[in-house]
Amino acid sequence: MSESMEIREQLKLAVDAKEYEAIRDEWKRHSIAEDARDIAGLISTLTPDCCYELVGTPHLWNGHEGAKQFYTQLLTAIPDIKFDLKNIVIGPQGVFEDAHVTGTHTSDLLNYRATGKKIQFQVAILFQWDPKLKKFRGERMFADLKTALS
User: Fold this and answer.
1) What pTM does this model have?
2) Helices and strands (H, E) in the chain, number of each type
3) pLDDT tens digits, residue range 21-37?
4) Looking at the chain, which terminus has fewer C-beta neighbours within 10 angstroms, N or C?
5) What burial letters (b/e) apply to 92-120, b meaning 16+ CB within 10 Å?
6) What angle do CA 60, 128, 31 make, to 5 degrees?
7) Minimal CA–CA distance to 101: which of 128, 124, 67, 73?
8) What is the distance of C-alpha 9 from the center of its chain?
9) Do 47 and 137 meet the contact criterion of CB atoms below 8 Å apart?
10) Tally of CB atoms within 10 A around 144
11) Model pLDDT for residues 41-94, shown as the tens digit of each residue
């Protein structure tokens, strides 16, 4: 199926109260695990073939091992990271969130050397939902880390 057909199929998805609750509950589990720095809990909300992508960069992490690498690096580099949620949209395709992120850049992250400084940036994240497995297929993250970490 072409990508455009996949999008057309996504648009046809019906809004179902039980599915909505399942998506919302899984997102809450994911967020609680992230706040608790519980990597195993985070991974439990993801499909085995999940993909983490920092859009606009070459950074991509695949599968549970990739997701573990992503979270380990993020939570080590910014151990006091805090996501202040500004907007959230939940639908049959998944969850979209918009957040203001703050924290202290204490160790290297991606291609950026640790500064020890307080940082802040906006992030938009799409959590793509897998309706068969009732888990997230990963995250597509949109953030200007270059400005925040340079």
Assistant:
1) 0.88
2) 5, 6
3) 999 999 999 999 999 99
4) N
5) bbbbbbebebbbebeeebeeeeeeeeebe
6) 90
7) 124
8) 23
9) yes
10) 12
11) 999 999 999 999 999 999 999 999 999 999 999 999 999 999 999 999 999 999
